[in-house]
Amino acid sequence: xxxxxxxxxxxxxxxxxxxxxxxxxxxxxxxxxxxxxxxxxxxxxxxxxxxx
Length: 52
Prior knowledge:
Helix content is about 25%, strand content about 20%. By secondary structure, the chain is α+β, with helices and mostly antiparallel strands. The longest helix has 13 residues, at about 30-45. The two termini are about 20 Å apart. The mean pLDDT is about 80.
């Protein structure tokens, strides 16, 4: 199972901000569809795969 987990950051202006090595998504309100799409694209990116 893969998941994206987050929590609040002190001083963060956005209600939700998801970050990985090459991309960031920020929302003023929780947008579950945007977060799901972000996670799908992140997990599909070859750079997110473990190195054997």
